[in-house]
Amino acid sequence: MNPALNQPVNPIRVFLADDHAILRSGLRLLLEREPGLLVAGEAGDGRAVLNAMPQACADVVVLDVAMPA
């Protein structure tokens, strides 16, 4: 709830993209604890990121720049 506007605040939608599943899992656990953040999806390679992004409607992408295509 945004007290100034007395309206609900939309969460920031975060997409996780990394080829290491354990890192994605850890990031998901940390982010899900934060109010106002929502993990919108995750992917383990570049092609999966491109396929998932239209449905994820993410505001932020945490992207490993050295993962497989």
Spell out the key features of this protein.
69 residues; globular; Rossmann fold; three-stranded parallel sheet
Describe this structure in words.
- The protein is built from 2 helices and 3 strands.
- The protein has 69 residues and is of the alpha/beta class.
- It has a single domain (12-63), classed as Response regulator (Rossmann fold, 3-Layer(aba) Sandwich), CATH 3.40.50.2300.
Mean pLDDT, to the nearest integer, reads 92
Main β sheet profile = 3 strands, parallel
Q: Share of helix among residues?
A: 25-40%
Q: What is the alpha-carbon Rg in Å?
A: 14 Å
Which structural category fits the helices and strands? alpha/beta
CATH fold category name: Rossmann fold
Residues in β-strands, percent: 15-25%
Q: List the secondary-structure elements in sequence, H or E.
A: EHEHE
CATH uppermost class: Alpha Beta
Number of strand segments: 3
CATH architecture: 3-Layer(aba) Sandwich
Count of helix runs: 2
> Looking across the biggest beta sheet, what order are the strands in?
2-1-3
Shape, per Cα inertia axes: globular
Distance between the termini: 40 Å
CATH superfamily: Response regulator
* pLDDT < 50 stretches: none
| Total domain units | 1
Structure summary:
The protein is an alpha/beta fold.
